[in-house]
Amino acid sequence: ATPTAVMVATGVGANNGVLIKGGDALERAQMVKYVIFDKTGTLTQGKATVTTVKVFTGMERGEFLTLVASAEASSEHPLGKAILQYARHFHFFDESSTTNGTLNDAKELNSGWLHDVSDFSALPGRGVQCFIDGKRILVGNRKLLSENGIDISTEVENFVVELEESAKTGILVAYDDVLTGVLGVADPLKREASVVIDGLHKMGVIPVMVTGDNWRTARAVAKELGIQDVRAEVMPAGKADVVRSFQKDGSIVAMVGDGINDSPALAAADVGLAIGAGTDIAIEAADYVLMRDNLEDVITAIDLSRKTFSRIR
Ligand code: ADP
Ligand code: MG
Questions:
Q1: DSSP symbol at 39
Q2: Which ligand places an atom closest to the C-alpha of 274?
Q3: Is the whole model's pTM more than 0.90, yes or no?
Q4: What's the total number of domains in the chain?
């Protein structure tokens, strides 16, 4: 392609909200064999919503939610935010009242309803831990609980499996080292996701999904989209290794992601595509920035490269 063709393509991209960082990135996209998608916030809307709350002890539901919300109050994770929002609604929005959807208690404003927590820690790929009145509370996945010696009964395990098989994430809660309850969280797919996966197949490109979420949920989501190749329970640092494993035979690999966790993988990929609504660090690590937060632009990016480098000479 001539420099003019590259300039034209870059301009066409920009007009569509596809920012291309240089001619090399534009050239590599035509040769992509695998496109690896992050799940949360990339294939899904990243708008996690609590759909299920189940308490397994005698604890009152409201108190359970306050405990979990207090533990998640300092979390930056979308799952933590979803839980906090759900608990806030449970306590402060009275559906029977006429002030539908408005705040009806000033306490909500200053978080006065939450417990004081100490020694908060966010454990990447696992969940959160902190202490309330000297009692430990753990909120996260099976790995978090088992690493901390908490027993998961068959009843709880069956409940979590059922959530996961319907594409939800099960979040387990241990309070004072007793498994107290489980929350189910759903994160809807982006509307265009399955069309884009179909489109890639038709272009001869193989879509792959990578996620820190558990295998069962990951498989359920991948199945809905028609993605055959899934890598789940990948620790945040492991996404770059997944990219490298696909590059081993010399294949050109693209990675699409949005979060801080995704930036090493975006940098490791031959073509890194950051979803525009994502974090600055992801945007910095990427070769392409998709400003519109629309997955169709992954196809636009590959198309643009193919057209620039194989037809226009
Ligand atoms: P993803 O790749 O889907 O963004 P993460 O690596 O961020 O996944 O998280 C992996 C898993 O760790 C989540 O699916 C969840 O089970 C657990 N987890 C992480 N952070 C939290 C949190 N703040 N609260 C509850 N669970 C969490
Ligand atoms: Mg993500």
A1: I
A2: 2
A3: no
A4: 2
Mutate to test the pocket of ligand 1, among 70, 79, 233 (most ligand atoms within 8 A of CB): 79
Tens-place pLDDT, residues 246-296:
999 999 999 999 877 889 999 999 999 998 766 788 788 899 999 998 999
Residues 68-124 pLDDT 10s: 999 999 998 889 999 999 999 998 875 555 454 555 555 566 678 999 999 999 998
One domain, residues 37 and 155 = no
Burial 34-45 (b: 16+ CB within 10 A, else e): bbbbbbbbbbbb
Residue 280 known to be catalytic: no
Query: Which ligand gives the minimal distance to the CA of 78?
Result: 1
Report pLDDT for 119: 97
157 in the same domain as 53: yes
Distance 168 CA to ligand 2 centre (A): 15
Handedness of CA 38, 43, 46, 48 (dihedral sign): negative
Q: Is 168 in the pocket of ligand 1 (CB under 6 A)?
A: no
Does the Cβ of 213 fall within 6 Å of ligand 1?
yes
ipTM over 0.90: yes
| pLDDT for 282 | 79
Please indicate, yes or no, whether residues 10 and 80 belong to a single structural domain of this protein.
no
- pLDDT value of position 102: 54
**CA triplet 306, 309, 312: central angle to 5 degrees?**
105
- Which domain CATH number covers 109? 3.40.1110.10
| Residues of the domain holding 216 | 3-45+188-311
With a 6 Å cutoff on the Cβ, whether 42 touches ligand 1 is: no
Does 116 share its domain with 199? no
User: Which residue, of 156, 186, 216, is where some domain finishes?
Assistant: 186
280 and 193 belong to one structural domain: yes
Classify the phi-psi angles of 127: left when phi > 0, otherwise alpha if psi is within -120 to 50, otherwise beta: left
* CATH number (domain holding residue 195): 3.40.50.1000
Single out the residue in 169, 186, 203 at which a domain terminates: 186
The catalytically annotated residue of 24, 38, 177, 297 is: 38
* Measured CA distances, 233 to 149, 157, 279 (Å): 20, 17, 22
